[in-house]
Amino acid sequence: MSAEITSSDLDQFKQDLQATPGAAALQKAVMNNGINATAENTDSKVAMTPTFSIELETGAVANQKQSGRCWMFAALNTMRHGIQAQFKIKDFELSQNYTNFWDKFEKSNYFYENVLKTADQPLDSRKVAFLLATPQQDGGQWDMLSALIEKYGIVPKSVMPETYNSSKSNELNGLLNLKLRKDAVKLRKLVADKASDADIEAAKQKMLAEDYRILAYALGNPPTKFDFEYRDDDKNYHIDRELTPQTFFKKYVGWNLDDYQSIINAPTADKPYNHLYTVEMLGNVVGGREVRHLNLDIDTFKALAIKQLKAGESVWFGSDVGQSSDRQLGILDTNIYKKDDLFNTDFTMTKAERLDYGESLMTHAMVLTGVDIVDGKPTKWKVENSWGDKVGEKGYFVASDDWFDQFVYQVVISKKYLPTELQDVIKNEYTKPTVLAPWDPMGALASR
After folding, report:
1. Mind listing the pLDDT tens digit for each residue in 49-65?
2. For 3, phi and psi rounded to 5 degrees?
3. What pLDDT, on the 0 to 100 scale, is given for residue 1?
4. Which of 157, 194, 249, 344 is the most buried (most CB within 10 A)?
5. Could you count the other beta carbons within 10 Å of the beta carbon of residue 261?
6. Model-level pTM?
7. Rounded Cα gap, residues 252 and 426, in angstroms
8. d(CA 32, CA 18)
C-alpha cells in the first residue's frame, strides 16, 4: 500500500513548523549561516584542548594535497617516525609517489584479472557493475600498501618526489579508468569469442605496457637503484650508495610486515567478534598479500591501540572523517554540532545501523600519535593527519573518545601486543577467513 502526500498533510506540516518555538529565528540563522555553523557547540572546542598524557613526537605533518592517498601517507608516516628518531632526520618523508606508481600499475592488472574471472557474467550482474564502477582509484587499505612494499620496497621522497599528477590526481584517474574500461570491452570480447589463453595473455600484456607508459609520463620512472644522501639534525653528512628499494626498506625501516594485523570494529550481526575476515575482489597485487581483518569489540580494539602507543609506536587507523568533524579546527567530536537540538529531531543511529544502512564507512586513514588517559580511561586522542599544516593544530587533529567509538573502524596493531588467544585465531583462520562480499563496508577504501 502506498500513500501520497495530501494537501491536508502539507497544512499540518506548516502548522507544526509555525508552532515550533523559535522557528523563525532558527530558520534565518540556518539559511544565512548554514547547518553546521548554527549547530556548532562551543563546549566541544574547550573539551578538545590538544593536551595528552601519552604523546609521541612525530614532527611536521605531510600533505597529500588533491589526491586520495591518505592510506598510503598514513602507513608511510608510521614507518618514517622510526627513521626520523633513529637516524636523526627531522621531518623526513618516504616517497608516496613511488608507492602510488606501483599501486596504480598493480591495480590495473588486478582489474584485468577480475574482468577475466567475471567475463562469463552479464554486464548488469552486481559483480561486473561493481568492477566497472571504479576500475581503480587513489584509495586503499593497510594490507594493500604492505603488498606493494613486499614486492617493490620503498624509497625516500627525495629519490622520487611528487609530480603534478600525484598531488592532483583527478586527470590521471579519469584517463586511466577510461583506458581500463576500454580494455575490459576487449577482454570480455576475447573470452566471448573463445580466444586462446595465449592470445588473451598477449592482449593483456600489451594493455599493461600502455598502462606503464601512461604512469611513467604522469608520475615519473620508479628508481631501481639510488644513493641516499642527507644531513642529520646535527648537520653531519651521510651518503648510502647503490641501494635498491628493497634494501632501503630492510635497512631503514626493518619491519616484518607480517607482524602487523588489521583490526576492525564492525558490530554488525553478520560479523561475529574474534574472527578473521577478507573481502572478495579487494586488493591490488595479484598473487600478493590478501586483506585480512580481525573483528574485535570496541573495548579490546581501543585497549590494543593504547598498548601500542604506550610502547612508543604510532597507530595507523581508518575512520569516517567527515562525520561530526571540523576540518579547519581539527576537531573530531560527536558533540561538535548539536543538530538534534537545532532541528528538534533525533538523528541518532548505532554504529551497526550506520554500517548496515549505508550512513557510514571508512573514508580516511590517519595516524594515532597520542591519547589522554584520565582515571584509567581514554578521553581524547591525538591524530596526525596528511592534509598539511594549515588545518588543525599544525596539521594535528583531536578526536574525542566517543567519536573514536562511533566512527573509527580499523587500526593496525603489531601482533606482539595481541593476547595469545587472538594470535591463535589469526593462525587458525589465516588460510580460511570468512569472505565478505565486494561491496561490504569493511572493503571500503580510505581515499579522502
Report:
1. 999 999 999 999 999 99
2. -135, 125
3. 73
4. 249
5. 22
6. 0.96
7. 28
8. 19
Ranges under pLDDT 50 in the chain: none
Catalytic residues: 70, 364, 385
**For residue 280, how many C-alpha atoms fall within 13 Å in the half-sphere facing its CB?**
15
114 residue type, one letter: N
Q: Which residue has the cell 631503514?
A: 252
Return the HEC string of the chain: CCCCCCHHHHHHHHHHHHHCCCHHHHHHHHHHHCHHHHHECHHHHHHCCCCCCEECCCCCCCECCECCCHHHHHHHHHHHHHHHHHHCCCCCCECHHHHHHHHHHHHHHHHHHHHHHCCCCCCCCHHHHHHHHCCCCCCECHHHHHHHHHHHCCCECCCCCCCHHHHECHHHHHHHHHHHHHHHHHHHHHHHCCCCHHHHHHHHHHHHHHHHHHHHHHHCCCCCCEEEEEECCCCCEEEEEEECHHHHHHHHHCCCHHHEEEEECCCCCCCCCCEEEEECCCCCCCCCCCCCEEECCHHHHHHHHHHHHHCCCCEEEEECCCCCEECCCCEECCCCECHHHHHCCCCCCCHHHHHHCCCCCCCEEEEEEEEEEECCEEEEEEEECCECCCCCECCEEEEEHHHHHHHEEEEEEEHHHCCHHHHHHHHHHCCCCEEECCCCHHHCCECC
Find the length of the chain: 448
The answer to whether 290 and 278 have CB atoms below 8 angstroms apart is: yes
pLDDT digits (tens, 9 = 90+) for 179-188: 999 999 999 9
CA distance 283 to 262: 14
C-alpha 383/C-alpha 411 separation (Å) is 13
